[in-house]
């Protein structure tokens, strides 16, 4: 798998991962904005609640696909190193938590509708985990 990922990224795995993760982090911020409009917490004359919610759903679907690609790249190329500490260890923890909470959010959205009241805290948790995951990898790479 490592060679497949390296070939797809033309040998620039870290750089491709950083770009994709940065796009996802920016879109995660956009998602918070859209749901603030969707829940009526932010009222704009040019964007209504229903279009904001529909856009949130469509962008969220795209974010999930890109997140899975980035996770695949991380796991298959960089792997899990049990001896890691510092930002790399935190990155693995935040990434695993992100995938877990994102999965729960998708389950609530698609099948467990009675738990819909948990969507706002799940969404904020996903957003925070996206940022923490980005900071411990892409942010660290861009700062260095």
Number of strands: 0
Main beta sheet strand tally, sense and closure: none
Q: How are helices and strands ordered from N to C? A: HHHHH
Structural class: mainly alpha
Mean pLDDT: 85
Instruction: Please bin the fraction of helical residues.
Output: over 70%
- Beta-strand content bin: under 5%
Low-pLDDT stretches are none
Radius of gyration of CA atoms, rounded to a whole number: 16 Å
**N-end to C-end Cα span:** 28 Å
Number of helices: 5
| Oligomer state of the chains in this structure | single chain
Net shape: elongated
A few lines on this structure:
The protein has 144 residues and is mostly helical. The protein is 78% helix and 0% strand. The longest helix is centred in the middle third of the chain and has 30 residues, at 49-78.
């Amino acid at each position: 798998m490592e060679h497949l990922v390296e070939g797809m990224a033309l040998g620039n795995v870290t750089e491709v991962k950083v770009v994709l993760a940065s796009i996802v982090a920016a879109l995660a911020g956009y998602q918070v904005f859209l749901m603030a409009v969707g829940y009526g917490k932010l009222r704009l004359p040019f964007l209504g609640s229903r279009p904001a919610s529909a856009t949130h759903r469509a962008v969220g679907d795209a974010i999930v696909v890109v997140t899975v690609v980035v996770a695949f790249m991380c796991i298959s190329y960089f792997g899990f190193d049990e001896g890691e500490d510092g930002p790399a260890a935190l990155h693995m923890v935040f990434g695993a938590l992100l995938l877990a909470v994102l999965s729960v959010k998708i389950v609530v959205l698609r099948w467990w509708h009675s738990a819909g009241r948990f969507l706002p805290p799940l969404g904020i948790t996903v957003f925070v985990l996206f940022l923490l995951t980005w900071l411990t990898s892409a942010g660290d790479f861009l700062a260095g």
